[in-house]
Write a structure and sequence with these properties.
Belongs to the IAA-amido conjugating enzyme family. With about 400 residues, the chain is of the alpha+beta class. It contains twelve helices and 19 strands. α1 packs across α2, α2 crosses α4 and α8 packs antiparallel against α9.
């Protein structure tokens, strides 16, 4: 990453696009630049490459490009040394036309911070793919991120679709009962949601990718799909079931309270803590602040309550009957989610496919998150569930 950013800065006027596979990876790169810009400026000024870069092939490749450029170093130094990093992308790379990054599904939480760094450049989601195979393309790449849909290309793999109400398992393979309900690409229906199933040239047969898609429309007769969520991300304490989309919306509503204090949510994950009775949801939040003013505890408590107030009726009923305890937010140190990613990569995860897990059950990652926790807050009040009513009120 250091070498890529160094070359990108050195050739800053030639850069036409910036990005990464996922929004989280691109934010990680910007944070890396924020941490190491002094060393990068030194290398640009002297025409050298930092001694920590030890791979001889990398050093040789970079040195073919790099020559001393004090004027450029002074420019980068001036921009990075400013109090605000708003628009840093367009300031350092003035000819950048767009940010090439996936911001669908839970990646949508990064849109505000991407807009902040890029001065509102178009966020372009070009393709839909996974480690199993490529699936399709976004035929309208300059559309608003909320309107992104992907047209599946039938020569990429053989695609089948399991209606959401017919899913009865979580295994990688399709059960005999589920096979009876599989739908071909030409038979999907507008507005319906399906789990994607693929048979690939590499030998996967009726493999469950784990993605939930909704039919958004058609290009001629080719179906176009919205990516909704990952199927297996679920929080549960009792009879409650909280999926990824619901959790994302609840976290978004709760974190809105931070904006009044010039703060925002960088990243988050969750876990279901059943070590106590009753068990409760825990959210791990990494927060960035644009000033030194402290955020009152009452604001975090209001965040907790708003998250709970945004969850489903089964969860809220559980809170009333005390089968579920008050939701907890644990604020972690800045850089914690970088360390979570580093740990995942050390265990063999692919950097191109890595996404922050939205629900954590793995002990070592939970230990890491807990070790980086700097403060903890609980929901101070309980939403009231009224049988037969969809509306909720609050108990003081």
């Amino acid at each position: 990453m250091y070498s890529q950013i160094l070359c990108g800065l050195y050739q800053n006027e030639q850069v036409l696009r910036v990005g990464a596979v996922f929004a989280s990876g691109f934010i990680r790169a910007v944070k890396f630049l924020e941490k190491h810009w002094v060393r990068l400026c030194h290398d640009i000024r002297k025409g050298t490459i930092d001694g920590e870069i030890t791979d001889p092939n990398v050093r040789e490749a970079v040195m073919k490009i790099l020559k001393p450029n004090p004027k450029l170093a002074a420019f980068v130094e001036s921009e990075c040394n400013k109090e605000s990093w708003k628009g840093i992308i367009t300031r350092l790379w003035p000819n950048t036309k767009y940010v090439d990054v996936i911001v669908t599904g839970t990646m949508s939480q990064y849109i505000p911070i991407l807009d902040y760094y890029s001065n509102g450049l178009p966020l372009v989601c070009t393709m839909y793919a996974s480690s199993e195979c490529y699936f399709g393309l976004n035929l309208n790449p300059l559309c608003d991120p909320s309107e992104v849909s992907y047209t599946l290309i039938p020569t990429m793999a053989y695609f089948e679709f399991l209606p959401l109400n017919k899913i009865d398992g979580n295994a990688d393979s399709i059960s005999a009962t589920e096979q009876e309900h599989l739908v071909d690409l030409v038979d999907v229906e507008l507005g319906q949601e399906y789990e994607l199933v693929v048979t690939t040239y590499a030998g996967l047969y009726r493999y469950r990718v784990g993605d939930i898609l909704r039919v958004a429309g058609f290009k001629n007769k080719a179906p176009q799909f919205n990516f909704i969520c990952r199927k297996n991300v679920v929080l549960s304490i009792d009879s409650d079931k909280t999926d990824e989309v619901e959790l994302q919306n609840a976290v978004k509503n709760g974190s809105n309270h931070l904006s009044n204090y010039n703060a925002s949510l960088i990243d988050y994950t969750s876990s279901a803590d059943t070590s106590t009775i009753p068990g409760h949801y825990i959210l791990y939040w990494e927060i960035t602040k644009n000033n030194q003013n402290p955020i009152p505890d009452s604001v975090y408590e209001e965040c907790c309550f708003t998250v709970e107030d945004s969850l489903n009726s089964v969860y809220r009923q559980g809170r009333i009957t005390e089968s579920i305890g008050p939701l907890e937010i644990k604020v972690v140190e800045n850089g914690t989610f970088d360390k979570v990613m580093d740990f995942a990569l050390s265990q063999g995860a692919s950097i191109n496919q890595y996404k922050t897990p939205r629900c954590v059950k793995y002990g070592p990652i939970l230990e890491l998150l807990n070790s980086k926790t700097v403060s903890s807050f609980f929901s101070p009040k309980c939403p009231q569930w009224v049988p037969g009513h969809k509306k909720w009120c609050t108990l003081d």
